[in-house]
Fold these 3 entries.
Entry 1:
Amino acid sequence: MNILMATSEAVPFAKTGGMADVCGTLPVELARLGHHTTLILPAYRQVRAAGLPIEPTGVHFDVAIGSKTVSGSFLKSRLPEGDVPVYLVENDHYYNRGGLYQEDGEDYRDNCERYVFFCRAVLEAVRLLDLQVDVLHANDWQTGLVPAYLKLEYAAVPEYERIGSLLTIHNMAYQGVFWHWDMLLTGLDWKYFNWQQMEFFGNLNLLKTGLAFADRLNTVSPRYAEEIQTAPLGCGLEGVLQNRRGALSGIVNGVDYREWDPSIDKHLAEKFTPESVATGKAACKAALQRELGLPEEPRVPLVAFVGRLADQKGLDLLAATVNDWVKTHDVQWAILGTGDPQYEEQFAMLAQRFPNRVAARLEFSNALAHQFEAGADMFVMPSRYEPCGLNQLYSLKYGTVPIVRATGGLVDTITPVDDKTLADGTATGFAFGDYSAVALAKALQRACDAYVQPEVWSRIMATGMQQDWSWATSARKYVELYEATAARVRRGLVAGNA
Ligand code: ADP
């Protein structure tokens, strides 16, 4: 298969979130399976600073943005691994800026225009760079117009008529909503500005546009694919997703085990394998306790959280539980994250008041993230919603038992401890359903009860460490999805009849 993956970010070129990991890693795995992927993304300032070789192609193009004609050109690079070509859409006015989407917490006011330009450039790239494409793979709202342009403007052009489109939803909460006059920038007829296609409560919605026009839709876990078909997780687009449920599926993201494997992890005080986890984790735990200024107590459970300090992550539940437990339970807490000042303040305060029980590092540190995963006994993710989640997958590999809210990808990747799963050796973590501090505390208590039974605990750890959540499995599922997308186009089906 030949895939053109259009994305607004991909590692190692530009990253603000998990989508960049998917788009930078999946093409390499697809290449291993014999499929050819080409990546295309904007030539942001970050991309140029990434230090990878970039050369001009000499190919320039003009596209219509509203009543203007805007010019750009294509630069060429490659992913560091595999044989994956990367085209960068150059237009300094749009992309040579301090951030990808915003600066100082303020979205760029011309974001709609910047991504209209990018989507038009993607379609032009197929023709001008003579790319052979079976499936155009769009990602999130920034590329929501790609399936629409393909269907409405290019479908009858010979080079395009056999191309299918897939849109991956990485997070329903970000939709690219702009005021209705930005419809003029898209160049599409106002007749598409209706409640089933591009309009959303009087505004233009670019994610909705993609959901309406793509041949196939997927998201980053099967459970999240279900959840977004109803409120509140559909974020207002549940109706559109229900209409298209026949075209919607879920594929869990993979882990990059070259980066996240305790047996080769250069950030750890001591590397360990499933065989040496007892001594290795003890050394990493002691090192982490020293690093964080917590008492070096080997038998006191150490519970970690790493992530964005955002409402999505369930930090109100966590803060309430830590606040209760510091007075009643012999447990240590380690928090690593940045984000909402309200949570930063709460955890900083807890750490200050209870320095022997709580440590809060309010920074972004990859090395510390690895050390938290390796040194902790338990990893807590009380997420309100979680499209896929990566930290629970890292935790499994590091023998750190996840305690998760049963939502999204956390349901698809963690097998909760109960009598049956303990007996048949499939249990990997603890889960709770209700979004409440009481439910979280109960799950934590069950984990602490298991922790003091070394046989039970080491069995749960061992089961987790044996799991394989590598990209190889997920990439095979993407190949099946690409094949289904292309077959759908060959059969001449139209998106509206999903
Ligand atoms: P999301 O994409 O919703 O932020 P994921 O669990 O899918 O959540 O991925 C988050 C990634 O970002 C993980 O690799 C995690 O280790 C990393 N991360 C988040 N916050 C920090 C931080 N403060 N320091 C280091 N790594 C972090």
Entry 2:
Amino acid sequence: MKLQGKIALITGASRGIGRGIAEVFAEEGADVAVNYVASGEAAEQVAGWVRSQGRRAVAAHADVADRAQVEAMFERVWKELGPADILVNNAGIETIVPFLELTDEQWTRLTDVNLRGEWLCSQVFCRRVVAEGRKAVIVNVGSVQAGKVLPGRTHYAPTKLGLEALTRNMSAEMTPLGIRVNCIHPGLFDTDMTAWVMKRPDLLPGILAQISMGRPGEPRECGTVAAFLASDEASYVTGQSFYVDGGWVGK
Ligand code: NAP
């Protein structure tokens, strides 16, 4: 098992890709803190599933864009599970709004969660790890839209491309202190975020035709890549961003 004895905090792990990552991490031997913002019951279910694999788990509430809530979440995880070795910054939101109609509020909320949230959780995590003199790993979750234009995403896409720069720059400062930082860019995954696409027979075949694999990904297919990056098998990998997209950007 790649993550035996490790403790991981995964943001947005109550559903979708975050849940897939939590499941793979538990199977690989990690204890898991399951962050959520609204779906407490779903987060408890994921925590219960992790425990059913013989690992420890806690459902941990925090809006990743709120410093006080993030600080309180880390404090609770440290108390209940112990100092975390791995942070996966997965929590994110997507809205689709034409550029000319986008409001200040829509821009601010989305960039706050998707970009500032990953920066904020990373900073709180790294301050603790550095003060404790430990080693650790961060995996950021971006999007295929870092490298691909889709309509109505002038707010979303920059947050995801921005994560590549955040990853590189955090890596440059943190790797010498013992914290590797990498990023994965999911393509089309079947989750609540994309449920509307899956129900559109007029849209879906055209999108799948652009993907070399010809199908959407399963959340666990992000989990296995995140587990590799979080493990010692990736001990010489830092500052990188990887597309996990079945061959979409590359086609
Ligand atoms: P999802 O099914 O909508 O789930 C989103 C998760 O993020 C939920 O656990 C949600 O918690 C959590 N979350 C949202 N806002 C939060 C906040 N402010 N603080 C803490 N948690 C928050 O989304 P997904 O498809 O799994 O996407 C996960 C990540 O992958 C996102 O960063 C997304 O941008 C990225 N991504 C997804 C796809 C795709 O095809 N699905 C493609 C590319 C990139 P609650 O359940 O409590 O609301």
Entry 3:
Amino acid sequence: MQLATHPRDRLIVALDLPTVDEARSLVRTLGHEVSFYKIGLELILSGTPGDSGLGLVSELVESGKRVFLDAKLLDISNTVERSVNRVADLGATFLTIHGHDQKTLRAAVSGRGDRELKLLAVTVLTSLNSSDLDEQGITMSPAELVLRRAKLAKQAGFDGVIASGQEAAAVRASTDAGFLIVTPGIRLPGSAAGDQQRIMTPLDAIDAGADYLVVGRPINAASDPRAAAATFVKRIAEAG
Ligand code: C5P
């Protein structure tokens, strides 16, 4: 599969909106400015059986967009394998799975089979700090655990990881260039961080090794989302 070639295709806009109609409306507003969308848990679980957030995956794919299904799967191997098998049929480009152990990761790879879906591991949620890990009996720092899990994901045949800008450089240094790094928490210089703890500008994230940038509120809550998206694309083009 050919992945991003144009700066525009490296921008993934998070459709973090409460209803399917609002998500559809944002996609219409953004038009040709955005080619790649992230559908997360809120939207997956929204709508009605006949018009669900999950249904939006195929709808966007049919209209020529790429979709990152941020389902963050974690279950027993058999369930993960079968679930990934279903997602691969939807036409999404990226899918997230919690990357805690080789058994689950390998089950996901097996479920994907020879379809084009790219599997991305969530290593350590950025909301967790050292004391949250300690609570689980994990004595490693979040940064060490991110690297350990990134390596597990690579060994299992995953295509890449989700990594904050701060983690990207270390992940890039320990994996080869073809291993995808998808980075959320992106802000333009001088803009509001919101609840993100570890933000980076597009330039800094790309310098650190990010292949794709996930942007939510700076675009989906902007007064002019299309202009905001165009600014991000411009910054990506300047950086890359
Ligand atoms: O609005 P904002 O740009 O902060 O949105 C970032 C998006 O990336 C959200 O959909 C959020 O759930 C997601 N994300 C994140 N940090 C992670 C993983 C995913 O912010 N570590």
